[in-house]
Amino acid sequence: MADVKTINLTIEGRPVAVAEGTSLLEAARTVGVLIPHYCYHPGLPVAGVCRMCLVEVEKAPKLAPACATSVAEGQVVHVHSEPAREARKGVLEMLLINHPLDCPICDQAGECELQDYTFQEGRKDSRYKEPKRFNPVEDFGGDVMYVPNRCILCTRCVRFMDDVAQDPVLNVSERGDRAYIGKFEEKDLTHPWAGNVVELCPVGALLSKDFLNKARAWELDRTASICPNCTQGCNAIIETRDNVVVRMRPRANADVNEYFLCDAGRLDYRWMNGQNRLDLPKARQGGALADADWDVALGAAAAAIRGKRTVVVASPMLSNETLHLLARLIKATGGAGAFRVATGPEAPLPGVKDLALRAERAANVAGAELMGFTKTDTPFSGLVDGDVLVIADHTVTDADLAAANRAGAVVVIGTTMPAGLSRVEAVLPITNFSEEEGTFTNLRGRVQRFLQAKAAPGLARPSWFVLSDLLASLGQATDYFVPSDVFTALASSHAEFAGLSYDTIGLRGLPVLGAAQAAGAAP
Amino acid sequence: MGYPHAPHARETLVLSKYFGDREAIGLDGWRKRGGYVALEKALGMTPADIVAIVKDSGLRGRGGAGFPTGLKWSFMKPGDGKPHYLCCNADESEPGTFKDREIMRWTPHALIEGCAIGAYAIGAETAYIYIRGEFTEPLARMEAAVREARAAGIIGPNAMGTGKRVDVWVHKGAGAYICGEETAMMNSLEGRRGNPRIKPPFPAVAGVFGQPTTINNVETLAAVPHILNNGAEWYKKFSRPDNPKSTGTKLWSVCGNVARPGNYEVVMGFPFKDFLYDLCGGPLPGRKFKAVIPGGSSVPIMNMEEAEAALMDYEGMVAKGSMLGSAGCIVIDDAQCMVKQIARLARFYAHESCAQCTQCREGTAWTTKIMERIEAGQGTVADFDTLLEIGDNMTGKTICVLSDSCAVPVVSGIQKWRHEFEAHITGKRCPFRTAAAA
Question: Which helix H or strand E contains A228, and what residues bound it?
């Protein structure tokens, strides 16, 4: 890094110092100047075709495309000068002449870069009086639908499939204003990462069939989160409308998933809205489970656990915080913890280093192992007659029942009620991942925070909160008011997490093991 | 030349001397006419010496831009450890231009010789000749000539027995105008879609297959053997005394409303008026010239006042508001509707736009639609401003100059023949169409 030269220039009157080879567009970004653009995307090779990012460089004969022009010493760049604004206005007018202006029925409206820049610096009217070109809507396979009339041919999708997914499916077909995004014969957008073209599309030309006509962009609440669907830990945004998750999208993180999210991850969010939820605490009363106050249910759970060896079967979808408290429960009762993780085929994204839909389809396998839980296909096999079984949101299959029912008593802490269990003493309903705050540890040991995206049903409480109360009922010291308190306790009792806190992790995450160095290196 | 006519006395035949001479097509006949003497000489020289001679001769690119050939060759750094390539641009897709076609049809070995010398001069072992898809006959002749030359050991791993490797390959394009743009041509050559690339990097740094590449026009390369045989001084003499910047002979393709269309070879600086009225025989009977597009359809249209005062070299054409371009001279007479002619040109560019840059993809088609609407008598006065503003947005803002080329005839047409546009708008019909119907 030391031999990279620093270039000094001026953009919109602001001094900029960036590494040699940086584009004007990226250099401007470092001082908070947004140069409007369509074809440019930091995760894709530069195309330089939309001509939207034209800027004025003093002493240059022509306007320069900021995405494809490298910084040079002493350059003076004007982004909002008259010639640059006129050029962009011209581009916007041209982009709109064949664009249908069907924003009221377009899914992209509200998050459309063509809308945004047109409002920002476009003409108020169009001088185009001729008929617009027409091409019918096409199914691109996978989750993607193509509306060619809205397409501005920025080729982001083509470049993503060619260079990042490395599965050439898309192309630019035809020429001139007849051009459209074509699909190679007998090919479909079935690549496991193909759905990213929907996010990459700056307009409403490539749409998610899953999200089609579901909600308007401005009605959505957005929450920084982590995709929980495999151990990769891709940074994600959970979008809800009226307390229902309607979409999951990638959130940029150069260290984990760059700008991308796989189709399996992005489309697997419906379980967060599940209707079969446990929403009231229950306790055994007169031989049967009955709805109860939280205090009663917690008391019943504590009574069942007290003085017994406890086996905890915990879901690897639980947060580090919850798993830490479960580990404390195990320690207090001299028991053991185990979990099982669902698997599927691994699907890498070739253009990004160390990014794949991982075989292990759960968010916190690494965290569970760090907290002392054993990964096994038969998590219930450690039960000895008379043990107390605590099921923490873990699946219970028919095959598990024989082993599970050896327990003398069962406490269910979960979002749903497993079928077929006998001797359940108490049921403590908890929030699911999208309803609480916490952290996951991904397969490379990176701890990442997720925030609460929606409200919990009924009387369900955050899992860390429920366990904190349960531990207190068992006479353990707990004084956690917010999940970060649990994390602080976790960090002080696990050497791997030493030095980490919600503040230092931020919303991009930090690696455990060596986290102290990383924290020390940060300014 | 002047195939298909007999050469005119005022022509200077260098490149076109054997046009129409069937014997010159084959290797034996070509050797009898002095073929491959220059190559043998060149392979005995150092590449630097060849570049120096070509630089000294003042030879400039004949494809349109007029960049000094020797200077272009000197950008290829010897000993950089990379394979170098020479690409001969035989796409000749500029409307009105058909000079390279005749070179390849009648003197294919002249081009191979030029390619081999050029390749050797820039440190390349491989030269590609990229021929446009529609050129079926020139393609067949070039392929046959390359086979002959290779079989005779003129080109190949041991070119002319000197131990030097010079390979020449012929590559057929699919017939896109834009593949005449050098970076699009390289993409096409590599098997990609023929889209122009962003410069920099320039081809001399990263060209075909990402390696240093020089691209020269057919006519440019065909002139090189003559320069080596006769010397730079001989070549420099083909110029007007007051302008040493344009040297040599130039092939002009003439088409349109003219008595004798065809190819003509004249020295740089030849008076355009004499050329049009004497060599080309003037207008058709009973007609008068109205306009000339001197350098292929991408250059500004000249009215006759400008054309008759122009001198036929790079600077002379610029002085009269146009460009030499590819020297594809399109002549338009007084029976033609300028609006229709310009609409037709715009339609061509709209059809050929590669669709990368917004201004070109949308602007060429928009321009065409407005021009055709005006031609159909549906235009409005506001269309003038719109056309000129679209033209401004299409100029100097895109990766290549196709979009500029579409704006050029429209803008120069409105400037010089505004009355014809206005007649369409006020009369609500094409005045020429009315006259023809009457």
Answer: none
CA distance B147 to B129: 14
Per the CB < 8 Å rule, is A87 touching B356?
no
Q: Tell me which chain A residues have a C-beta less than 8 angstroms from the C-beta of B399.
A: 48-49
Residue A93: list chain B partners with CB under 8 A. Answer: 393
At which residue do the structure tokens 């253009």 appear?
Answer: A351
What chain B residue is nearest to A52 in terms of C-alpha separation?
A: B358
Nearest Cα residue in chain A from B194: A175
Nearest CB among A49, A94, A129 relative to B362 is that of A94
Interface of B with A in 157-176 (CB under 8 A): 176
Residue of B197, B353, B366, B381 to mutate, interface with A, max A Cβ within 10 Å: B366
Residue A374 backbone dihedrals phi, psi, to 5 degrees: -95, 130
Report chain A residues whose CB lies below 8 A from the CB of B364.
Answer: 176-177
Q: Is the alpha carbon torsion for A132, A136, A140, A144 positive or negative?
A: positive
Question: What are the tokens at A235?
Answer: 């940074």
Mean pLDDT, consecutive 10-residue stretches, chain B (438 aa), reads: 78 94 95 95 96 97 94 94 96 95 96 97 97 95 97 95 95 94 96 94 95 97 97 96 94 96 95 96 96 95 97 96 95 96 97 96 97 96 96 96 95 95 95 65
Closest CA to A26 of A11, A199, A13, B200: A11
Contact residues for B123 (Cβ-Cβ < 8 A; gap 6+) = B47, B76, B78, B79, B84
Residue B355 contacts A, CB cutoff 8 Å: yes
Structure tokens at B170: 């012929």
The model's pTM: 0.94
H or E element, residue A220: none
Chain B CB contacts of A95 below 8 Å? 358, 362
Instruction: Give yes or no for a contact between B306 and B271, defined as CB atoms under 8 angstroms apart.
Output: no
How far apart are the CA of B167 and the nearest CA of chain A, in angstroms?
A: 32
Cβ distance B370 to A176 less than 8 Å, yes or no, reads no
